[in-house]
Amino acid sequence: MASVLRFRKLCYVESAVKCTSVGYESFEIDEKLDEKEEDVLSANNFALEINKKRKQPKRQPKEWRCLDSCCWIIGYLCTTWWLLLFCYHCLPVTLLRVPELPGPGVRLKREGLTALHPVVLVPGIVTGGLELWEGRPCADGLFRKRLWGGGSFTQIFKRPLCLLEHLSLHYETGLDPQGIRVRAVPGLVGADYFAPGYFVWAVLIENLAKIGYEGKNLHMAAYDWRLSFQNTEIRDHALTRLKSKIELMYISNGYKKVVAVPHSMGVIYFLHFLKWVETPPPMGGGGGPGWCAKHIKAVMNIGPAFLGVPKAVSNLFSAEGKDVSYIRAMAPGVFDSEIFGLQTFERVMRMARTWDSIVSLLPKGGEVIWGNMDRSPEEGHVCDFSKKSHSKTSLTTNNVNNSDVNRGFLVKDLANYGRIISFGKPASVLHSSKLPTADSKEFSRTSTSENFNNFSCGEAWTEYDEMSRQSIQNVAADKAYTTTTLLDLLRFVAPKMMRRAEAHFSHGIAENLDDPKYNHYKYWSNPLETKLSDAPDMEIYCMYGVGIPTERSYVYKLSPNSRCKSIPYQIDNSVHGEDGSCLKGGVYFADGDESVPVLSAGFMCAKGWRGRTRFNPSGIATYIREYRHKPPTSLMEGRGIESGSHVDIMGNFALIEDIMRVAAGATGDEIGGDQIHSDIIKMSERINLGL
Amino acid sequence: MSKPLSFYRSYFLSKTMFLRRRNGTDSSKTRVADPNIEKDGADNDDKKKDQYKMPQRRNYGSKKWSCWDNCCWFIGFICSIWWFCLFLYNTMPDSIPQFVTMAITGPLPDPPGVKLRKEGLTANHPVVLVPGVVTGGLELWEGRHCAEGLLGKRLWGGSFGEFYKRPLCWLEHISLDNDTGFDPPGIRVRPVTGLVAADYFATGYFVWAVVIANLAHIGYEEKSLYMAAYDWRLSFQNTEIRDQSLTRIKSNIELLVATHGGKKVVVLPHSMGVQYFLHFMKWVETPAPRGGGGGPDWCAKHIKAIMNIGAPFLGSPKSIALHFSIEVRDIAALRAQAPGLLDKDVLGLQTFKHLMRMFRTWDATFSMIPKGGETIWGGLDWSPETETVNNSAKKGTDNSTRNTGGNGNICDTKGVNYGRLISFSKDWAETHSSKIERVDFKHVAKGDKLTNSSNCDIWLEYHEMGNRAIKAVADHKVYTAGSILDLLHYVAPKLMARGASHFSYGIADDLDDPKYDQYKYWSNPLETKLPNAPDMEIYSLYGVGLPTERGYIYKVAPPSDCSIPFQIDTSVDGDSEDSCLKGGVFSGDGDETVPIISAGFMCAKGWRGKTRFNPSGIRTYNREYKHAPPANLLEGRGTQSGSHVDLLGNFALIEDVLRVAAGATGEDIGGDRVYSDIFKCGHFCRHFGMSVKFEKTGFEVLENVLVSILCVVLKKEHKEMTSH
């Protein structure tokens, strides 16, 4: 403090000295001004002097210099701010509280609902927190701090490369690299908030607490969402712990069965768990065939990604999503400017490809489910972008010149959803007979011929660096890929990753479920290759949002730059469909919850498991609960109490009410059975799957 | 930022604009007034000059540094510098502070985790941590209206969150129901689970964090560590009844053993957790309806070692003062220094009464009342510590003169009767028992109510006593560990009735008596048998070399309507400067909270070899850690501390823990390691005077100050509430 004061004094002296040396005139003027009685000057003189003074204001000792002004402003603002803050804190707490919307918890409590069945929450991909247990020197001081989710992401901004290194897994093993241990954050804090203020489970937990839930009957099954499901067991015993936890809650809550609430990828994780727990010990949990029937009342899947999400395709293929490609289109330089050597995408892609779990989200069921080159179950879906009015207007202005004639009768370019990746718009529109066929043989031919690239890029970052230019172009040559050929494509562009991941996941459809090969754990998370357990009293709910355009397939192009360590493909965001078509910015949209298309979320409950099927031999009851998306009506609602979007749906009051009623003992029929807004039934009928 | 800047600019612009306009009008005026100039020249000139000068003055005069501007400038200056420094600090690579520290202190010793990792130790046995009283976090699951919006926030531990703003609300939620010992209706406060429950108590104040960090260095992670969090306010059995805490611990230990290929767990209980775990071991082997039904060999199958840290096996005298008058040494000293601050009736604070009421609702605190009566804690004229006073005192003097370089803060135990836990006035503390006439207080009828006690805001059982009863209590003059129970029963009958149903403080004559199957005896090591697990090891790890409260001198507080009638008499000091009696408190050796008798006796004698308390001959080890204050500020709370909580950061202790967790046995780490006289037993055990430094950790002082400030706020709010 004292030194600062002294410093200030010095400043003063200095400026005074300056003035004496530089500003003789001004001093004289000062004197003149001060001595009133002496100077009888004419008006002109005065004006002149004033002008003079204005010209040289900096020489005045008492003048506001720029720095002083800045200090003054800052001081002024700070003081005001503190004053306001002080006032704010002085006010009684009750006065300032934002009147909260009474959640369903309060209402249901008044109805007399109380906690009955223990609840297990299973978080999805990305939303779970990760913390550091052992790291490289660059991550010093971050021990047991969150690297991902929960608190702040400040660390990511502070040392991005270090964090990327720690969050990546080993490319070959799919486990942690040597010397790094990053683990899931356990407990409810693991996934209640993703970032400050961005709730994931918090609203649901809060409402459950209102009717009497607490730590002993509410459990968050945190797991490391980067790993393949079986690896979470191998490394962290996550499945064993979940089993023990469920058994404990079952016993300590008076032998009440558990209601499981998985979200997003947690859905297939829990599916994996259900199969694992009944499998005998070396591979499974050894709970015996009646375990699920004994311990689980209902599985309430929120935004279930049963059959995968197309988003995972674009993520693995080019580390892009709809939003990212928009940003790239708007500000082309930001992400991949070479000046900074940033190469954000490449780094992100490198990280994402080490995560096995993303592979689990690739579309499952192949062409039977997702459609082939010419037809798909969603055919005839009418896209309505009206909610995004600005984008619509931009679309119409684009289309004025080419489609103002008789728009209504033009054959709309049918969205060929089945072509999950097409290179160039023609490939996405033309009939399949006019397209060159892409089959796996072709891949194998090229890959064997040119495995070694002739231009050296140093350390290979992604497996794209190991591909030759020729094969990159081969892949792109006016082709379209369906979900089946897509897997071949990925196997071609990223052979190591797929080899690693396909040891843990399978994406097909079982012909004969009794085939002993389906006892292997890699089939457990695919609902089309496993039987549900024998638990006739169990209930399965599919609860998801509808009414939001959801990515369904992509139009790609070769990316312009061909330097090393770059991703050779990009979503072609210049491609737009005509008005009313579902193609926008290189992405075909279908109905869904912004991440998961209706098809993936609803098919199993609507058809695959409905009644007694070969996938559901014991006839477990299934219910579809759809929630139509309504954007928040006012700011007070935050992210909306009727939202249908993938994560925000966890704050949807209707959904929360359903969960609470079931947790308090209601059955699916009591809460109203199916509740369907979309065309899921029609779509399911179009899918030709032997049951 | 741009907004205020533009505001500022516009402000200046408008000002100059204004000036220009003024100038303009002025000049036009002068032009109009031109013909008149000749009429009154000088006068007009003056006016003109004024007219020009006025704006000028405004212009430049306002730029003179007024006080306000100076302040603003100054604040702005400081802020800018601060931000600049902050910016520099944040951009600085992380290694620099470390480098600076290294430069000042020389190379820091490797933390034990790093050191042992170099030796090749790796994670082996899973580790269970059992936190003690107060250090575990509590969170809110359901609250009254005043706690709206705080759901899931920490009520205790962490940063204490929002609650410091609404102290009365906080008190209401943290207190339990006085009759049932559970939460009051409409409130659910539950323990935080997971390692976060007790890694840090408040921000920056570690509890388990250092141990966890070092365990992580040799390969432990979340899957092999388990924090057995429980609600430390409840009595032990009630944690099972309400939260199934014991069942959860059992299930988690079984899970740990199963997932680690049958490797048994190493348990690290701290403070009250020690008793909690004793209770657990007994519970888990008791058949199902009353216990966990684990069968008679559960402990043998699942537990490798129990490493009790700062173990109050036999209670702590601190709890008596807390129960009796919600005081401890530090608070009493604070009260003496600023007598008005804490219990000003003028402000109507009544901090103590609030705290006392809260404290008395916590059943768990009964577990800390000294156990074993006079046999352990000493009678009127003897105590285990002072058997050979003269001898040991001299020895102690020699030792400490050498240690402390001559400025001896040596505790002189001469004339100290540690057995007298509470004495009214110093005289009674010192005179021989034959000369004390004690008046029995038990038959003095209560009910001679204090005047206006109905006016008291806060209900306390003291208000139901009468003046006569208070006087009778004081007339009894001296209380030992045995009679203290009678005293507590007398002054707080309801409370003790509740406590007595969950805890017992005696010594069993016949351990096979079926009455000892009842759970209230399970946490008392003198009334239970250890489980049948010959391979298990029990360690007692505790700090020594710090003055620890051992006995108190009380006085009757000046009568007032609603106050607590007894107070520690802080004016009483020992005869010599280095007496053990300071500020009304007798100090003995220990770790500042637990005297060594309580911490060490069971392992040194009670369980050593095959005894009736330890029928299967479980091996026991005493490991003492001599307190050494931190050498400099950079060490924080010290790497060689022996104080009750800071012991968890003691490198030697951590090393022992790591070695055992990595598979070593008690013999491997060196068996017993003793500094005190815990083994030299004349009658029981005795102990010599040790070097004493009356130092308080900064934290404790801060805490006390915070509490007192909190109470000021608290009362204000309370007044507001009552006035409505």
Automatic annotation (TrEMBL), chain A:
It holds the Pfam family LCAT. InterPro entries: AB_hydrolase_fold, LACT/PDAT_acylTrfase. GO terms for biological process: lipid metabolic process. It comes from the Eukaryota. GO terms for molecular function: O-acyltransferase activity. This is Phospholipid:diacylglycerol acyltransferase 2.
UniProtKB/TrEMBL annotation, chain B:
Keywords: Acyltransferase, Membrane, Transferase, Transmembrane, Transmembrane helix. InterPro entries: AB_hydrolase_fold, LACT/PDAT_acylTrfase. GO terms for molecular function: O-acyltransferase activity; phospholipid:diacylglycerol acyltransferase activity. It holds the Pfam family LCAT. It catalyses: a glycerophospholipid + a 1,2-diacyl-sn-glycerol = a monoacylglycerophospholipid + a triacyl-sn-glycerol. It comes from the Eukaryota. It is a single-pass membrane protein. It is found in: Membrane. This is phospholipid:diacylglycerol acyltransferase. It comes from Gossypium davidsonii (Davidson's cotton).
